[in-house]
Amino acid sequence: MQDMHQHYNGVLVGLSYAVSVLGSFTALQFALGIPLAQNARQRWGAILAAGTAMGGGAIWAMHFIAMLACNMGTQVTFDMWLTTVSALIAIVACSLGLAIVGSGRFRFINLLFAGVLMGLGVAGMHYLGMAAMLTSALVSYDGSLVALSVGIAIVASMAALWLAFNLRGKLQMLGSALVMGVAVCGMHYTGMSAMELTQGDTLPAGFEQGMHGDHLGLVIFVVVVLLLALALGLSFVRQQRRAALSI
């Protein structure tokens, strides 16, 4: 059987990084409300908002756009159910990580536990998302690169959680979001490089019903960016109101 090689669309690669940066920045903004929450409802609202921005915007959207950026030399569609579940895993993992670190006084043991949990969730999202590929190619993985990608996910998760509770300035958050974008992309593309494709000749069941489209990556980017921008705007409005009430 003949090995196949991956090629990337540079525009979509750039968009995947951009959406990861915006998602990270939005998540850091929402995380400001976790320690300031006056009751459990406000606290969980801030946790879920930050977890959704991080898991859904910075991580899952980046992952899926980057998957669409990859030309594998064969037709590929994506199972909608597995893709949806992978997004939910990322959101839940990030929300749990934020909830653990944000409970009470900031402690390293909480950061370590939450980072491992969140990192494993992110890695699980990534490989489940790759399992959602419907293609005639036969897929296998390089175990050492898989392990490296999981390690990167854990370290990146710990960094994201630390930043969420230790940064306040807008410029600091922007710089951190730029770094987080690099970390998230690093995990994804390391995981993609672990994938080894061999040419096959049989399309799997459900191939025709899978998600596909020449402009699907751009559409997802535009939709996610609009949602993140709206969420970010609402966050700024809430912060201004909170500041006005405290005067």
Summarize this, please?
Helices cover 73% and strands 8% of the residues. The protein is mostly helical and 247 residues long.
Termini gap: 71 Å
% residues in beta strands: 5-15%
Structurally, how many domains make up the residues?
A: 1
Average pLDDT level = 87
Shape by Cα distribution:
globular
Radius of gyration using CA atoms only: 19 Å
Class of secondary structure makeup: mainly alpha
Organism: Dyella kyungheensis
InterPro entries: MHYT_dom
Keywords: Membrane, Transmembrane, Transmembrane helix
Domain MHYT: 8-198
Question: What do you see in this structure?
Answer:
The protein is mostly helical and 247 residues long. It has one domain (3-246). It has helices at 10-31, 33-36, 40-69, 80-101, 108-131, 143-166, 170-193, 216-246; strands spanning 3-4, 7-8, 70-71, 76-78, 133-135, 138-141, 195-198. Strands 1-7-6 form a 3-stranded antiparallel sheet. Strands 2-3 form a two-stranded antiparallel ribbon. Strands 4-5 form a two-stranded antiparallel ribbon. The model has no long low-confidence stretch (mean pLDDT 87).
